[in-house]
Structures are given as C-alpha cells and as structure tokens.
Fold:
Amino acid sequence: MRLLHTSDWHLGRSFHRVSLLEAQAVFLDHLVTAVREHDVDAVLVAGDVYDRAVPPLAAVELFDRAIHGLAEAGVPTVMISGNHDSARRLGVGAGLIERAGIHLRTDPAGCGTPMVLRDAHGEVAFYGLPYLEPALVRDALGAEKAGHEAVLSAAMDRVRADLAGRPAGTRSVVLAHAFVAGGEPSDSERDITLGGVAAVPAGVFDGVDYVALGHLHGCQTLTERVRYSGSPLAYSFSETRHRKTMWLVDLGPSGEITAERLACPVPRPLARIRGPLEALLEDPALAAHEEAWVEATLTDPVRPADAMARIAARFPHTLSLVFDPERRDEDPLVSYAQRLRGRSDQQIAEDFVAHVRGGGPDERERTVLRGAFEDVRIDETVREGAR
Structure:
C-alpha cells in the first residue's frame, strides 16, 4: 500500500509579514497532482492544518479546496489536529466529510478506533492521534500523570489493544503530533513544553508498522518506521537549510517500509547573510542571494545609518535585519546574552529569584514556578480553542 505523508501546512501563516497563501495554494495543488501521478492509496496529514485556532477565511477556503481535490482524486485521507489547530473546529462535520473519504481525527477518545483499508495483502488500520495536551486529556485517556509521554503511552495502549483484536497480519499506521526525542526543532514551532519535558521517546510507538509524525518542520527519519515529513514551506529563517518534501511510503505485505522524498514547490529560496554592512553590499559571492528572502545580520560595532534601505538596494527581498555588533568577551552585554542562551523560562525565573534574594528557590518554590508557567500555557491553549 502506498502512502503520502505530509504535515504542518499552517494554512494562513505568513513569513515575516509576507503572505504565503498563494504558495500554500500551489503546494496543495501539487499535493493532489502527486497523489494522482504516484498512484497513492492513502494520504496522511499529521496535524497543524491551520496556523491558528481561528483561521482567517482565506485559509479556510484553501482547506476546502484541498479536501475537495483529494476527494475528487478518490484517495482516502486521514487528517489529525495539531497544537495550532482548534480540534473542535477542525472536526466540525467530520461524520459527513468522512463519506467523501476524508477522515478527520480530532477527538482523543477515538485514538483506538481506526480507519481500515484493504489491499491485496490484507487490511491496514490507520489510527489518528490528535495533539494531546496532557492536562486536558489525562483523565479521558486514563494516563498515570499529566505528561506528554504518559498521555501518548495511554493513547498507544488503546491502539495496541485494538490491533490485538484484529486478524493476524493486520498492518498498522499511526498519525501523531508530538515532539519525539531525536527530532531537530526549528524556530517556527510553538513550544509544547510541559514541566520542562516535551520530548517523548520513539519507543512509545513500538508495535506499529509506520508512524507519520507532525510538529517539527524539518523532514526527519528517527527510525525506519518513525518519520517527520516536515512542513511543506519554510516558516522561519532557521529552516534555510531544509529541503521541503513529503514522504512517499510503500508499506509491504508484512509491514516492510520503503520511503522516498517528494520535493515541494519553493516560492523563493531563503538566505542568511552576516557581516559588516559594507562587506555585504560589496561581496560578489553573495550575488546568488539577490533574489532570495534574506535575513541580514549586521556586525558593525555601531549601527549604520539607513541600514535597511541600503541592504535592500542590493537584496530587495530582505525581510529581517538583525543588529549583532561584534563585542569583546568582557563586554557585560555579551556575558548576559550567554547566560540566557538556551535556558528555559523556568531556569531564567529561578536565576532571577537567586539574584534578588541571594539564594535559589527550594523544591517547593520550583514546583510553584513550574505550575505557574504550565497554567499560563494551558490557559492560552484553552482560550485559543474557545475563540
């Protein structure tokens, strides 16, 4: 059975205030064309269909166009909600849409209920695990505690229990939206950290033939059977080196996996350039980036006058201008930035407590701080979903 694995469309998202709606429309048309040209048997969309819980009308129209195109191609599609989606909104009309072959999986309670397809070698069960916010789904899934690994493990227990009751030789595919250990993040994914632990081990998914992951925007192979497709478009300059693709996966008679990457259309290349302004304006080696979307980092010790206008004269598609003057190691601004680099909100808060009173927080105070950060993030998630 041939599968096409994609995720993280983020319909409605812009790139540094540049609308990507046209590029997203081109990708969706490309997706439907690829389904036809490669004789795909099922499409897997592993979450973050939209960029916001309440997407703009233009993004909803793109989604409508996509599902009509997939339905007309006659290829079943399994689609889950991600952490950017409002699960309840995306799932509206799921029962009716399913009649057209578009299987929306947005309710955590349905984790153990698959969509089943059959080929010449038997049945394949497709399980959709929407993004699972631990504090909100712990009780519904019967998880031991409110953590990403705990709720995903509870969901996978339901998957394995259902599989155990199916005919021997039934192959299985799981769609999930999560941060799995070993994956490499970029700057454009929303943080899903809970209690300082966001990543779950790939072993959570043991026992199934293929795991189609969403959330991280770079295409990645964690194991032969556990893969991220990545986003079809770049949504931050941290993705400059990404090659945007989808996975074309062949699932063999006994669950064997072969996979190849299908390239996605690129609206415009990305480039990061760095150096003193005059050097960037004169360096002939940078000519290749003159038509790219550019992030320029200026290292001049003093901010140059009219820097954006001057850099845009050579690189007209410059979208981001960063000022990062080269400083001596003893410069207090350098040491402060180094202290903050790579530290979590929790760690920064604990450092602040230690600074103002001469001693760090005890374990009880750390728990209070951790709970406060978690409550704020969960409250934001709930409010977004209720809008």
